[in-house]
Amino acid sequence: MDTLQIKLTSPEETIQFGAQLAEYLKPGDVITLEGDLGAGKTTFTKGLAKGLHIKRVVKSPTFTIIREYKGRLPLYHMDVYRLEDSDEDLGFDEYFEGEGVTVVEWAHLIEDFLPDDRLAITIRRLSDNERELTIEPTGERSNSVCEEFRNESISD
Q1: 18-49 burial by CB neighbour count: b if 16+ within 10 A, else e?
Q2: What 8-state DSSP symbol labels residue 53?
Q3: Residue 104 dihedral angles phi and psi, to the nearest 5°
Q4: Which whole-number Å values give the CA distances from 50 to 70, 72, 80, 121, 141, in the listed order?
Q5: Mean of the per-residue pLDDT values of the chain
Q6: What pLDDT was estimated at residue 88?
């Protein structure tokens, strides 16, 4: 399972990348996002929503923990930052094994609840506009998504 690194030079490119990646996602796929505040986690998720044909405006679920959006596939957008000192299980499995795609911001805070197979994405801020995304598949399905995406983007 190879790690994929991508450099993006604007918020628009981050949205476009998320939209392109969404084309390869299926029900039950989980994406975890790590990165400092302002790194672009929600911007990336807006791109996924665009690629899943979601019409609603995507906002960070910081205070609600989970937001659900309907599109080609449902999108379950989680921000678990506020759960840092909690061992509470909020029914994560229902989302991870559900009919949609789950995105988890600050995923390291609920490591024990995460599925083994996921796309682990770290977003690093290089400058005001530049970001470096490191994408690490952690299982068979996520590796397949990464390979399909890589092969398709190379042939374009």
Answers
A1: bbbbbebbeebbbbbbbbeeebbbbbbbbbbb
A2: T
A3: -120, 115
A4: 11, 10, 22, 18, 22
A5: 86
A6: 60
Instruction: Evaluate whether 62 touches 42 at the Cβ level (below 8 Å).
Output: no
Joined together, the tokens standing for residue 26 give 């299926």
| Residue that is written with structure tokens 């609603």 in the block | 56
pTM given for the model: 0.89
Strands 30-34 and 101-105: parallel
Give yes or no for residue 146 having a pLDDT over 70: yes
Taking Cα atoms as reference points, which of 94, 93, 87, 123 lies closest to residue 106?
Answer: 123
pLDDT beyond 70 at 145 = yes
- Which two tokens mark 98? 């559900």
Pick 66 or 11 by higher pLDDT: 11
Q: Enter the tokens of residue 9.
A: 């030079």
